Amino acid sequence: MTVTDQSYDAEFGDFFALLKPRVMSLVVFTAAVGLLVAPVSMNPVLAFSAVLFIALGAGASGALNMWWDADIDQIMKRTQGRPIPAGRVTPSNALIMGLWLSVLAVGMLGLTSNWVAAGLLAFTIFFYAVVYSMWLKRSTPQNIVIGGAAGAFPPMVGWAAATGGVSVESVLMFSLIFMWTPPHFWSLALFMNHDYSAAGVPMMTVTHGKPYTRKQILIYTVLLTPITLAIAFTSIGGPVYFAAAVILSVGFLRGAWGLFNRSEDIATGDDYAAERGVFKFSLLYLFALFFALLIEAALRGLNLTWGAWPVWI
């Protein structure tokens, strides 16, 4: 079966699914945190508008990605139910929707916030749709390492929407998500390896094998830890964030170490509980860390500062 542009009966929910709402929720949350923890307060209406247009930009990226990946989505079990391979939306409609939403999101963010944030959003869409989807994903096992930058930009865009610029804090939030992405997706790839292999996607598990991938998960989790902790000693951090960072980092490192020592004789068939566990924990890890940053911002807003808490930057 091939994906064609025949006339389909699409419903609103099918077009909404093109936006990848689950992925969008993470983008919206991290972008909103980047905006809210910034040292410059925004008018609530403008702040809401900024997050909305960032969300539309993320949705545009999702639609463009689904348009380009329609051929492999119909092969992979995890993605066969998406609107295009399932025959509910035509590829051309997905492309048009993605392009129009991109223009709308970038233009309106520039008009309602500033053009630095709009430029970062435009680059994010380009990076995800072109650099990652069209180039890296099908050409190198480093696809998710380099391509992870697309998912790391939202808090930087949110920060820029509030401040009009980039800072050490926003770069560290970017770096946190950038380094988190490989162990997050590789843990998924460990128990979805058949899908990637069948679709010809050179994920690390396909090109280098699962033991090597487990080793890389551990390495990247170790490299992620100092970045996670460093944020505690910036103007957006504090003891609450530091405590969360320590506890969550220990949990992530423990999970990565467990995967590294996991025998392939055990991790066969449906016995991927450890891999699924690390994947789910990685989601909790990111959400909890950014939520801790929100708590720190709320405490600063209430003038409940920590006095002698060290701030390096």
TrEMBL record:
<feature type="transmembrane region" description="Helical">
    <location>
        <begin position="217"/>
        <end position="234"/>
    </location>
</feature>
<comment type="pathway">
    <text>Porphyrin-containing compound metabolism; heme O biosynthesis; heme O from protoheme: step 1/1.</text>
</comment>
<feature type="transmembrane region" description="Helical">
    <location>
        <begin position="240"/>
        <end position="260"/>
    </location>
</feature>
<dbReference type="InterPro" id="IPR000537">
    <property type="entry name" value="UbiA_prenyltransferase"/>
</dbReference>
<feature type="transmembrane region" description="Helical">
    <location>
        <begin position="115"/>
        <end position="135"/>
    </location>
</feature>
<feature type="transmembrane region" description="Helical">
    <location>
        <begin position="89"/>
        <end position="109"/>
    </location>
</feature>
<dbReference type="InterPro" id="IPR030470">
    <property type="entry name" value="UbiA_prenylTrfase_CS"/>
</dbReference>
<keyword id="KW-1133">Transmembrane helix</keyword>
<dbReference type="InterPro" id="IPR006369">
    <property type="entry name" value="Protohaem_IX_farnesylTrfase"/>
</dbReference>
<feature type="transmembrane region" description="Helical">
    <location>
        <begin position="46"/>
        <end position="68"/>
    </location>
</feature>
<protein>
    <recommendedName>
        <fullName>Protoheme IX farnesyltransferase</fullName>
        <ecNumber>2.5.1.141</ecNumber>
    </recommendedName>
</protein>
<keyword id="KW-0808">Transferase</keyword>
<comment type="similarity">
    <text>Belongs to the UbiA prenyltransferase family. Protoheme IX farnesyltransferase subfamily.</text>
</comment>
<dbReference type="GO" id="GO:0048034">
    <property type="term" value="P:heme O biosynthetic process"/>
</dbReference>
<dbReference type="GO" id="GO:0005886">
    <property type="term" value="C:plasma membrane"/>
</dbReference>
<comment type="function">
    <text>Converts heme B (protoheme IX) to heme O by substitution of the vinyl group on carbon 2 of heme B porphyrin ring with a hydroxyethyl farnesyl side group.</text>
</comment>
<dbReference type="GO" id="GO:0008495">
    <property type="term" value="F:protoheme IX farnesyltransferase activity"/>
</dbReference>
<comment type="subunit">
    <text>Interacts with CtaA.</text>
</comment>
<keyword id="KW-1003">Cell membrane</keyword>
<feature type="transmembrane region" description="Helical">
    <location>
        <begin position="281"/>
        <end position="302"/>
    </location>
</feature>
<keyword id="KW-0350">Heme biosynthesis</keyword>
<dbReference type="InterPro" id="IPR044878">
    <property type="entry name" value="UbiA_sf"/>
</dbReference>
<keyword id="KW-0812">Transmembrane</keyword>
<keyword id="KW-0472">Membrane</keyword>
<feature type="transmembrane region" description="Helical">
    <location>
        <begin position="23"/>
        <end position="40"/>
    </location>
</feature>
<dbReference type="Pfam" id="PF01040">
    <property type="entry name" value="UbiA"/>
</dbReference>
